[in-house]
Every structure is written in structure tokens, then in C-alpha cells.
Amino acid sequence: MFAWSSALLTFLCTIRLCTALTGNHIAEYFEAHLSPHSGVYLPGSKNYTDAVTPRWDLYRTPSYVIAVKPASKSDVQTIVNVSSVQGFWDDRLTNCFKVKYASQNQIPFLATGGGHGYISTIDSVQDGIDLDLGNFKEVSVNASANLLTVGGAAKFGSVVEALQVLGKETPVGSCMCIGMLGATLGGGIGPYSGLHGPFIDSLVSVEMITGTGEALQVSSSEHPDLFWALKGAGHNFGIVTSATYRVYDATNGGQVVNADMILPSSLNASVWAYMQSLVADQPKELFLNVAIGYNASTEKSMLIVNGQFAGGIRKAREVLQPLLDLQPFNLNITSLPWKDASGAAVYGLIAEGCVPKGETDFAVNLQHINVSSLIEVTNFMNESQSRSALLQSSLLSISQIGSHGFRLRPQSSAVFPHRETIAYLQVQGTVPNATAGPTVNAWGRQIRHIAQLGSGSRALRAYVNYAQGDEGDAAWYSAENLPRLKRLKRRYDPMMLFSHYAPISLST
User: Fold this and answer.
1) What is the pTM of this model?
2) DSSP β-bridge partners for residue 2
3) In a 3-state reduction of DSSP, which class is residue 278?
4) Integer Rg of the chain from CA
């Protein structure tokens, strides 16, 4: 029902190859040069489907001539070095790479962790190489040092399970099937960000292969400029194979209250007014999401409200009382372990966000809660979804998170430019087939336009993990950060290998 985004560990690179190279040629090279436990798979082979991590978004599906599954960091380095033409020198291919700058044939490759990135810029990967990080799923907790280390393909579900049993926590997203690192590189927000901030604020260090083929340990003390850039624009500089995070003692003994309720869209003004009332002092323990979806039985839109509160039921009810006074139906308030909150949220339907489907998303960061603007958005959705069956499986969600966690670190500590954002609006357009794309995209852009006019910001601001792809780097990373980001891009990825996922533009 929801695709939180989030977003996942996804990077796009370009290898310049001669026209004569085929998937078989590339497979022969990698089979000879990667470690024995690596895998090389050609599409159509009998083990391809089972061995290779599938993409989640079926609307913009990259196509590949080969999938490579490295077993070690040095394998990843070998692949990146090939892309920057520091490798691939066997006799048959030497002449091909000596004329790399004359070659007109560009073969992109996509490094995949959880496989959930859906930004539209991904669709530039056609007939490419799939660098599958599925062998990097390790999750290790040092409880005494309050540190968590995860591999490039570790998912939220594995992280939460490992931490809960030790009485620890760290911010994660809402869908447990999404990759931890992919979401982190875009900043990372989730239900516990009100307590601890975006995921990047808990990031201690990473191990990565840069666009120059260097294997680096990156932290606040080692390559600190690059560490700054990775925290919000991390898709642009290389492949992160592992990362270490701070973890925290479990809030409320590891128990969280999950509250679900449904309200008719006729009460939307009261819901937006409640959200507006939270702006000044939203409890850090409260994560609130309001979704607008179509109700086939009433033939109108409805509001699906999910609140997660890291505290007791009595306090949660007190905080949510203005919503309870609206007499919602299907009210369900339960206290449960943190690791089970995602599975229970939205009546247990949030896991539907892990089911592959076609989706196109649009994002707007709200700098304040403009009740009149959100009423206009609701009315537009109600009218348009009532008229068109094609739009009735699409959703809009607005996530509101307390500001406490976002104020624990200064803006200068990371690229992530959204610490003053009050709420994150995301249109989740369902695309059942390719012919539906233009209609759903036009609808999503119209909602984004209406919401942007009331967002409190003259320029569009969009959280990159929710972004459509057409907003531009100033919207994702802020215009103020771009000069520094461009200098770092030239230093760590001078060949522009990692320039297809929410790319930093080097044009003036």
C-alpha cells in the first residue's frame, strides 16, 4: 500500500566499450578476474532469476546484458576499475579499450542493494551491467560500543531484528524490505527520526569504492569532505560496501504504540488543522502519516491515518486525542515490540509496499502546514480519482516528524538540506502498464504543483529518496551545496561514472 521510501542502495555508472563486446565477452573477463565466490549471470540463463536481486519498480525497469555478483570489496574495485578503464586488459580486448574515447557505445551499470530505487533517472540503464551487492548482507552489532555495521545489501528488517534482541535501536524506514544503505545515502527518514534525526546523523563511517577506483574508509576524520557529501548525495561518488552506525538504548523498553484509523475525506480540514497544531511542539516520540486514497465503496477519497508513538498507550492517546474526537472508524491502537511495528502499521498493509509493481512518485517538502492548500490537494484527488478508474489505486501520503532529532546536528554536518522541513509529501502513482504512464505522471505533476504553491518555499524542495527525477539537483541538495558538491564530484568521480541516480550536474 505504501512504498516508503524510501529508496535503496542504487548507483549508476557508465562503461565505455567497443561495439564488438557482448555479454558473453564481459562474462568471460569477469569469470577470469573476480574471486571464486563471485557470480556472473547472463539473462535467460537458468539460474539468473534466482541468483539476481530483482527490481521492485516494474514501471522503469533497467535492462541488462549481464549481472555480476561480487563476493568481496576487491571484486567491486575490479569492476569499477574496469569501468574507468584501469582494467580489462586481456589480449582480445586491449585494442578495444585503447580507443575508449573514440568509442560511441556506452554501457551503463547499476549497483543494486535492496533494489527499491524508483527515481526516473534510472531508466537510462538499458542493455547494461547489473552489479548485484546481494553478497553484502551482513549485520553486526557491538552493543557495548553502541555500534552497528551493515553490508551494502542489508535490509531494514534484518537491522531491526538484530537490534531489538539487544535492547538497542537506530532510525530505519517504514518498509522492512528496503536496503539500509541506499536509503541512508539519500539522507534517510523514518518513524524514529524525531528521536535521533535522519539516518545520516547516526552514520559513523563507510567503506567504499570511489569513481576513481580507490578503496577508501570515509568518516568525519578520514576524507571528511567526502563524508559530508555522502550524507545526502551519496549516490554520486561510488559504491558503499559497508557502513557503521551509532545505535541507542531502546526507547520505552523497545515497545511502540501503533495507531491506525480511517476518516472520510470530508473531515480533511480538521486533520490538516491537527497537523498544523503539532508544528510548534510535536513530541519527538510521534511519527504521523496521513494518506489519501480512494474508497471504492463510497466512491470518494478517504484519509488513512497511521501514528507511531515510542511510549505508552495512555500518552499516545493523549497526543492523538484531537483525531480520536473526530470519531474515526476502524480504530486500532496497540502496543507492540518495535520490530513488529512495520508489520502492524496501516492494518498490516504496509508490507504491500514490498510487492513489485509499477510506480511513479512525486515529492514536495512542506515548510509549513497550509490547511487551505492541503484542502485543495484533497479536493483535486477526490474529484480526479472519482472520474478515472486508472487513478484509483494511487495514493498521496504526508509524513510529519518531530523536529527534535533534526536539530541534534547542524546543517553544515551533511549535504542533507531538509532539517527545517515540517512534513514530507509524496504522491505514489500506480502505473499498471506502460500506456498508463503519461496519464499518471500528468496527474502526479498536477498534485505536486498544487502542493508546491502552498509549501512555504518559493522553489521546489524534494527529498531525494521520494523524488520523481525531474526536480533537479538544486531541489534535492540545495543550490547552496552545489558548488562544493561539484568540486568533490570532480575529485572522486572525474569520469562521471556515478551520474545517473539523482545526478549532480557539472554544467554551469
Assistant:
1) 0.92
2) none
3) helix
4) 23
